[in-house]
Design a protein that fits this description.
Elements: H1 2-17, H2 76-87, E1 88-89, E2 96-97, E3 100-101, E4 110-111
Parallel strand pairs: 1-4
Antiparallel strand pairs: 2-3
């Protein structure tokens, strides 16, 4: 016990003799940074991409008889139900890209999303979009 303590003390003493003092560092006089204007970027002509129609957007026009205006129901509840049904967009088989259902955006549309318990459903919204109701 005494021998190991004596050896440890001797080793610590020998190692402390090898230590060097911290060197003195001379700092330069720092100069303040100056803002250098960037040269103007070269002008690039960029072609605009042509948007491709998504599946479901290339629908055939209905027959001329279907284009006539139908009288609106007198009951406002029925009118709202018909408007909601016309605005509703359901998932389609053609709307899948890889394993994701992609909906084409349409102003005022109601999107139905089917989720499964114990499975993650991720909804990516664009800036300014928000969920109105969750059922």
């Amino acid at each position: 016990m005494k021998l190991s303590l004596l050896l440890a003390g001797g080793a610590a003493l020998a190692l402390s003799a090898c230590a060097q003092p911290v060197p003195k560092i001379a700092y330069d006089n720092p100069q303040p940074a100056h803002l250098v204007p960037l040269p103007p970027a070269p002008v690039q002509v960029v072609t605009l991409p042509e948007p491709l129609p998504l599946p479901g957007q290339l629908k055939k026009l209905p027959p001329a008889a279907a284009n006539r205006l139908r009288p609106q129901p007198a009951n406002p509840v029925v009118r709202v139900a018909l408007a909601n049904a016309a605005a509703r967009i359901n998932p389609t088989r053609d709307g899948y890209i890889n394993a994701m259902q992609v909906f084409p955006w349409s102003d005022g549309a109601l999107y139905e999303i089917y989720a499964s318990p114990l499975h993650v459903t991720d909804i990516a919204l664009q800036p300014g979009e928000h969920l109105i109701s969750i059922a």
